[in-house]
Write a structure and sequence with these properties.
The complex is a heterodimer of chains A (about 110) and B (about 120). Helix content of chain A is about 0%, strand content about 55%. Chain A is mostly beta strands and about 110 residues long. In chain A, the strands form 2 sheets. In chain A, strands 2, 4, 5, 9, 10 and 11 form a 6-stranded mixed beta sheet that branches. A 5-stranded antiparallel beta sheet of chain A has the order 1-3-8-7-6, with no helix packed on it. With about 120 residues, chain B is mainly beta. Helices cover about 0% and strands about 50% of the residues of chain B. Chain B has no helices and 11 strands. Classes of the chains: A mainly beta (about 110), B mainly beta (about 120).
């Protein structure tokens, strides 16, 4: 099982739609979770951290399910500007743990 | 507000040539990282520096060397470039590992082609 797995997509949705992405991780002891956004040929940018209780930032909601080892990202009222690749990122445990990036899920929002 | 700055942004090399990719951050972060990103592979960690004076190998260190010159600067060197090193290289930085929820901030990348 790969460390961090995502459906590569693309997810094609119309403006205003609600879309959700899931991501699974293999290390049950992983401590920190993030969603990053990456536009074509640009650097990844932090979208939001994912907390155990779930968290919301405007139209974006992130959830963590430790029992099933997955995190999710929900985008409501999609905008054209939401078109991007969304990277699931997991930090391990112990000592100095580095980040493991998923390969990303591509979202295309159309008019 | 510069954040993480990488130079150069684009470079074409011939096989066997050497070059150094530069990275500097102005956020007073302790930790810095070098990644490469290839189509279908996602971001892979090459080397990282947890703090000034230390460096460690990541997932794909072969063919690369790094130098943590000071707290601000972390360079990546290709001693003898190979076509397999054609990639987009990202530098990143973060607060020290004390708070595990600290994210990484990325530079805008160096697009490197090896002919």
């Amino acid at each position: 099982r790969k460390e961090v797995e995502q459906d590569p997509g693309p997810f094609n949705v119309p403006e205003g739609a609600t879309v959700a992405f899931n991501c699974t991780y293999s290390n049950s002891a992983s401590q920190s979770f993030f969603w990053y956004r990456q536009d074509c040929r640009k650097e990844p940018k932090l979208l939001m951290s994912v907390y155990s209780s779930g968290n919301e930032d405007g139209r974006f909601t992130a959830q963590l399910n430790r029992a099933s080892q997955y995190i999710s990202l929900l985008i409501r009222d999609s905008k054209l500007s939401d078109s991007a690749t969304y990277l699931c990122v997991v930090r391990g445990v112990g000592g100095y743990s580095t980040l493991t990036f998923g390969k990303g899920t591509m979202l295309l929002v159309s008019p | 507000n510069a954040g993480v700055t990488q130079t150069p942004k684009f470079q074409v090399l011939k096989t066997g040539q050497s070059m150094t990719l530069q990275c500097a951050q102005d956020m007073n972060h302790n930790s810095m990282y070098w990644y490469r990103q290839d189509p279908g592979m996602g971001l892979r960690l090459i080397y990282y520096s947890a703090s000034e004076g230390t460096t460690d190998k990541g997932e794909v260190p072969n063919g690369y060397n790094v130098s943590r010159l000071n707290k601000r600067e972390f360079s990546l060197r290709l001693e003898s470039a190979a076509p397999s090193q054609t990639s987009v290289y990202f530098c990143a930085s973060s607060e020290t590992q004390g708070n595990s929820n600290q994210p990484q901030h990325f530079g805008d990348g160096t697009r490197l082609s090896i002919l």
